[in-house]
Amino acid sequence: MHDWYQSVVGQALVETERALVAKALSGRFGAHMVQLDTGLYDPLFERRLYGCGALVTQLDNTAACPVVRSDPEALPFEPESIDAVLMHHTLDQCDNPYQAVREAAMVLKPGGLLVIIGFNPFSLWGARAALSKPTQGVWRSRFIRSGRVADWMQLLNFELERHEKHYFSLPYKQPEWTRHLGFLGRIQRFMMPATGAVYLLVGCKQVAGRINSRARFRAPGVLDSRLANRIVRSRYNGE
What is the residue-wise DSSP string for 6-30? Predict the structure, then answer.
């Protein structure tokens, strides 16, 4: 994936995704931000918005931010310790996509943000992936339906803030093809907005209020108090 991200079409897609992440994180700040990387080796988020931003990757790299070696299905963070998690095509590449979303839900704080970017199977890119050999670069990605991922998020108590499709460019490496046939992408965006090459899902972690198991202090009733007993005795004695 790293080599593909450095290609002309890969760089164009990454720039679009960088703008999508900036829009999703606009107006939000936090202490800890984590990006689950699939070979880009470069943070898509603005590091100034978070006190500490890190890449979680399976391979060593020279990213310009802290790098954590880990699988997305087993994140090495304390529960409810992260403010935002960005999954950059993580579900397209990992072995257990649902477990990866579940891990993100576990490490996010209540009110934390989960941003997921993935390839849309109902697009020209998805059609090319279905017709390509499974060993050919990016086309061996999983291409999970975004509605399925949204169901996972809602099952894990996320409130969806965005569910969008983006990037209507043709899936070809030759830039001249994209330049000459760019009008087709504009027509596709207008007439078939659900067929963008990538989907964007943004969810906020919702946690129900916990019920305090401790017994609350209850003031004794009037008839149970010493004063009440004294009043009863005084009336009985004719005082």
Answer: TSHHHHHHHHHHHHHHHHHTTT--E
3-state secondary structure (DSSP) of residue 147: helix
CB 113 within 8 A of CB 200: no
pLDDT at 94: 94
Q: How are beta strands 108-119 and 198-205 bridged, if at all?
A: antiparallel
Interatomic CA distance for residues 116 and 57, integer angstroms: 16
Return the beta strands (E) in 38-101 as ranges.
Answer: 50-57, 67-69, 82-88
Contact assessment for residue 44 and residue 21, using Cβ atoms and an 8 Å cutoff: yes
Gyration radius of the chain's alpha carbons: 27
The per-residue pLDDT for 231 is 46
- What six digits make up the tokens of 89? 């095509």
Cβ–Cβ under 8 Å, residues 200 and 116: yes
Under a CB-based contact definition with an 8 Å cutoff, are residues 141 and 129 in contact?
yes
Cα(28)–Cα(222) distance, rounded to whole angstroms? 53
Q: Which residues pair with 160 in a beta bridge?
A: 203
Task: Tell me how far apart the alpha carbons of residues 38 and 82 are, in angstroms, rounded to a whole number.
Answer: 20
**Please, what are the domains in the chain?**
2-236 (3.40.50.150)
- At 215 the pLDDT is 42
Q: Which of 226, 202, 75 is nearest to 149 (CA)?
A: 202
pLDDT at position 184: 65
Mean pLDDT in order along the chain per 10 residues (239 residues): 89 94 88 92 85 86 84 95 96 96 96 96 90 76 95 96 92 61 64 89 80 43 48 50
Q: Measured in whole angstroms, how far is the alpha carbon of residue 36 from the centre of its chain?
A: 10
* The pLDDT of residue 227: 47
